From TrEMBL:
It is found in: Secreted. This is R-spondin-3. Residues 11-110 form the R-spondin Fu-CRD domain. InterPro entries: Furin_repeat, Growth_fac_rcpt_cys_sf, R-spondin, Rspo_Fu-CRD_dom, TSP1_rpt, TSP1_rpt_sf, TSP1_spondin_dom. Interacts with the extracellular domain of FZD8 and LRP6. It however does not form a ternary complex with FZD8 and LRP6. Interacts with WNT1. Binds heparin. Interacts with LGR4, LGR5 and LGR6. GO terms for molecular function: heparin binding; signaling receptor binding. Its main location: secreted. Residues 174-243 are annotated as: Disordered. One of its GO terms (cellular component) is extracellular region. Belongs to the R-spondin family. GO terms for biological process: positive regulation of non-canonical Wnt signaling pathway; Wnt signaling pathway. Activator of the canonical Wnt signaling pathway by acting as a ligand for LGR4-6 receptors, which acts as a key regulator of angiogenesis. Upon binding to LGR4-6 (LGR4, LGR5 or LGR6), LGR4-6 associate with phosphorylated LRP6 and frizzled receptors that are activated by extracellular Wnt receptors, triggering the canonical Wnt signaling pathway to increase expression of target genes. Also regulates the canonical Wnt/beta-catenin-dependent pathway and non-canonical Wnt signaling by acting as an inhibitor of ZNRF3, an important regulator of the Wnt signaling pathway. It comes from Regulus satrapa.
Length: 243
């Protein structure tokens, strides 16, 4: 072993030196050179840092640099994230997206253009004017539809979601607020009044019939006495003897 090579290293190094840092790594760790000013030192990491990708070999695992426009990559020719100002598309970093695609500034990727989509129109509303369906001859009716898919930046914009057209209705007067209730109340009172009147008339009729019945009964009781008195008077009447 070279005098400046140590076996008792820290930080995952298998071998190291005071000047160059790690010279080799423990199993499964990746070896990468880091620049500190004018000096490069070796370090051993569990995964490669941003801008590097890992390759495994029988004797050593190394971190290699991605292409200049890649922030992270899977291999040197396949980027997974681009640096600022570039858009990711199929593993490549592009300044401008291909035709048929658009740049997504949120994900920094080239994505498909999405056009607006709407639902079917609803049925036409009742003919109205100033929020009322009565008291006029000409009004308006409307129908609506909903947006089910909002467009992307370069997609076709959404059309109008409401439509209105003029309409004609048979003119009728508006019923005043509370008038219907008032009419029902008046009808109820009238009905109660009629029922009360009929009840009073029935009571009067029953009283009259009862009075007539009592009077007939009293008459029936007094008639025999009158007939008796009449017979007695005939017996006491003087007999005409002139003949």
């Amino acid at each position: 072993v070279h005098p400046n090579v140590s076996q008792g290293c820290q930080g995952g190094c298998a071998t190291c030196s005071d000047y160059n840092g790690c010279l080799s790594c423990k199993p499964r760790l990746f070896f990468v050179l880091e620049r500190i000013g004018m000096k490069q030192i070796g370090v051993c990491l569990s995964s490669c840092p941003s801008g590097y990708y890992g390759t495994r070999y029988p004797d050593i695992n190394k971190c290699a640099k991605c292409k200049a426009d890649c922030d992270t990559c899977f291999t040197r020719n396949f980027c997974t994230k681009c640096k600022s100002g570039f858009y990711l598309y199929s593993g490549k970093c592009l300044e401008k997206c291909p035709d048929g695609l658009e740049a997504n500034n949120h994900t920094m990727e080239c994505t498909s253009i999405v056009h607006c989509e709407t639902s079917e129109w609803s049925p036409w509303s009742p003919c109205m004017k100033k929020g009322k369906t009565c008291g006029f001859k000409r009004g308006n009716e409307v129908r609506v539809r909903e947006i089910v898919q909002h467009p992307s930046a370069r997609g076709n914009p959404c059309p109008a979601t409401t439509e209105s057209r003029k309409c004609i209705v048979q003119r009728k007067r508006c019923q005043k607020e509370g008038k219907g209730k008032k009419n029902r109340e008046e009808k109820r009172k009238k009905s109660n009044k009629d029922e009360s009147k009929e009840t009073r008339q029935e009571s009067k009729g029953r009283a009259a019939r009862r009075q007539n019945r009592e009077q007939r009964e009293n008459n029936n009781k007094t008639q025999p006495k009158k007939r008796k008195a009449s017979n007695k008077e005939q017996d006491l009447a003087p007999v005409d003897t002139a003949h």
